[in-house]
């Protein structure tokens, strides 16, 4: 008897699930592993959000099935947040949809929009679900290489005509995971006019829109003229408010796309638990000092880590957003070789860049979701155990 479909048999295992297995076996053998792999905030969810959840969970009416499109109060909070933060007007009834974490929406928008055989344009390197969701929807991935010398922005004019002709959807992600790249509003204006001219939907993943440093403020793609004609933007409470485990996010923008995605989803899930949506609404409606406080902490770690890397011969320009460092591997290693050496010889998990797509080869990613003293310890272990000749 066979227990998986052909499609499942061919899907590569989710990279972080694999890393977790290796980590577990090392921990079991007594190695004190430092995990700079997965991006999961160590900072606690701010108290006012947790308290709101506790309050709402005690109301009997909240134990019922939630609304398919999300609680009106959550959708209104997202609209308020967009108005305040980006000066973008959203109709909470037609232009906002609640998600069970943005990953859920990212995975489901692909089969909502494409037919088997259609192309999906994805950032390479990029967040792995863009690729796997396309595969599961029987679409074709077209990797848009993101190069350091072009600030990790795709070159739209390099996409072949025949690919464009069968492309229905493009993913973008700034501040970027794993590249940490940030863009200004002009980039989105260009992307929107390109997408409109080619009849391609843009799905912008803005998971790190509030995790930014110094005075950089990440723009929303919906600030670009005409964006609502072709674009949606995914947002997440996960990184901003340290709420990864809550599983709450949203998608905003073009109302036809939002409608179609809500129909798709209504056949699969029945929405997120109402108290979680109301805690998330409270997070968005409250003053944002907690997010500034968290960003300051990530920024200090980022500075400590770029300094530490520099001391061991790895030069990285300090990013303006996200909570990662995207660094070139030292001379003489591939991404996999370096990540393996660092794990086996120094007991430190970093993510090999090629896990995010072919153009990630030659890089590794460090997550800043551990305290500074542990980051220092990681650098010391690498310094002591790994031979690095600078390029
Ligand atoms: C973490 C992350 C997400 C997923 O966020 P959830 O809302 O927790 O599902 C989406 N996109 C990128 C780029 C991320 O790094």
UniProtKB/TrEMBL annotation:
It is an enzyme of class 2 (transferase). It comes from the Bacteria. Keywords: Aminotransferase, Transferase. PANTHER family: AMINO ACID AMINOTRANSFERASE (PTHR42832), L-GLUTAMINE--4-(METHYLSULFANYL)-2-OXOBUTANOATE AMINOTRANSFERASE (PTHR42832:SF3). This is Aminotransferase. Belongs to the class-I pyridoxal-phosphate-dependent aminotransferase family. GO terms for molecular function: pyridoxal phosphate binding; transaminase activity. Its EC number is 2.6.1.-. It comes from Filibacter tadaridae. CDD domains: AAT_like (cd00609). Pfam families: Aminotran_1_2 (PF00155). Residues 32-382 form the Aminotransferase class I/classII large domain. Its cofactor is pyridoxal 5'-phosphate. InterPro entries: Aminotransferase_I/II_large, LL-DAP_aminotransferase, NHTrfase_class1_PyrdxlP-BS, PyrdxlP-dep_Trfase, PyrdxlP-dep_Trfase_major, PyrdxlP-dep_Trfase_small.
């Amino acid at each position: 008897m066979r227990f998986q479909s052909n499609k499942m048999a061919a899907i590569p295992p989710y990279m972080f699930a694999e890393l977790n297995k290796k980590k577990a076996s090392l921990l079991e053998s007594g190695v004190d592993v430092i995990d700079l792999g997965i991006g999961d905030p160590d900072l606690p969810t701010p108290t006012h959000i947790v308290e709101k959840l506790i309050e709402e969970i005690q109301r009997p009416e909240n134990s019922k099935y939630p609304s398919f499109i999300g609680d009106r109060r959550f959708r209104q909070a997202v609209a308020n947040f967009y108005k305040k933060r980006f000066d973008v007007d959203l109709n909470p009834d037609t232009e906002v949809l609640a998600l069970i974490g943005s990953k859920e929406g990212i995975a489901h928008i692909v089969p909502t929009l494409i037919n088997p055989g259609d192309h999906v344009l994805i950032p390479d390197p990029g967040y792995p679900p863009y690729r796997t969701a396309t595969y599961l929807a029987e679409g074709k991935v077209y990797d848009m290489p993101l190069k350091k010398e072009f600030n990790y922005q795709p070159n739209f004019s390099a996409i072949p005509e025949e690919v464009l002709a069968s492309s229905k959807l493009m993913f973008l992600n700034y501040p970027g995971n794993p590249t940490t790249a940030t863009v200004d509003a002009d980039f989105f204006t260009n992307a929107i006019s390109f997408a409109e001219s080619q009849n391609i939907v843009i799905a912008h993943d803005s998971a790190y829109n509030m995790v930014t440093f110094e005075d950089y403020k990440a723009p929303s793609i919906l600030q670009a003229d005409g964006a609502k004609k072709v674009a949606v933007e995914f947002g997440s409470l996960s990184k901003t408010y340290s709420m990864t485990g809550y599983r709450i996010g949203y998608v905003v923008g073009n109302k036809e796309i939002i409608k179609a995605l809500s129909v798709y989803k209504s056949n699969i899930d029945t929405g997120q638990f109402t108290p979680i949506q109301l805690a998330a609404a409270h997070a968005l409606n409250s003053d944002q000092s907690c997010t500034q406080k968290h960003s300051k902490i990530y920024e200090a770690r980022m500075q400590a880590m770029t300094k530490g890397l520099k001391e061991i011969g790895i030069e990285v320009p300090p990013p303006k957003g996200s909570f990662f460092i995207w660094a070139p591997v030292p001379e003489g290693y591939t991404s996999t070789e370096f990540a393996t050496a660092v794990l086996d010889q120094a007991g430190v998990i970093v993510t090999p860049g090629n896990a995010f797509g072919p153009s990630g080869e030659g890089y590794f990613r460090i997550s800043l979701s551990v305290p500074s003293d542990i980051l220092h310890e990681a650098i010391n272990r690498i310094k002591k155990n790994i031979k690095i000749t600078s390029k």
